[in-house]
Amino acid sequence: MDASTFSLTGFAALYIFMLAAFTGYEVIAKVPAILHTPLMSGSNFVHGIVLVGAMVALGHAETPAGYIIGFIGVLLGAGNAVGGYVVTERMLEMFKSSGEKK
Predict the structure, then answer these.
(1) pLDDT of 21-59, one tens digit each?
(2) Domain presence at residue 99
(3) Alpha helix (H) ranges present in 30-98?
(4) Could you tell me if 55 and 46 are in contact, meaning their C-beta atoms sit under 8 angstroms apart?
(5) Neighbour count for residue 53 (Cβ, 10 Å)
(6) pTM exceeds 0.85 for this model
(7) More confident position, 100 or 60
(8) Residues spanned by the domain of 84
């Protein structure tokens, strides 16, 4: 079997994206508000995987549109990963006693 037998059409890719977005929303909506920050800071590894995937997609791009979308994906993935670590740092600052703060 060659790789072309497993390619997705635009409609199928859009359908999978919509299912993933709906499932993600439903899962996060059921998390209590007090657990959102620890949940998001604990998922920083996922942000790194998204960034690696975006870099791979950019590396395999062949058209100008592919380069643009891949670059935007890398930019957003990097921002997401860095933002996750910033949120984690701020969350950990909240748990320090007043004598330990800078």
Answers:
(1) 998 888 878 877 777 666 766 677 777 888 888 899 889
(2) no
(3) 36-42, 44-59, 64-94
(4) no
(5) 13
(6) no
(7) 60
(8) 3-94
75 C-beta neighbours (distance < 10 Å), count: 12
**Is residue 63 a part of any domain in this protein?**
yes
Q: What's the distance, CA 69 to chain centroid? A: 15
Question: Could you identify the residue written with the tokens 């800071």?
Answer: 41
Counting the structural domains of the chain, the total is: 1
94 and 61 in contact (C-beta within 8 Å)?
no
Residue 101 within a domain: no
Tokens for 77, please give them: 């993935």
In a domain, 60, yes or no: yes
Q: Which residues have a Cβ under 8 Å from the Cβ of 76 and sit 6 or more positions away?
A: 54
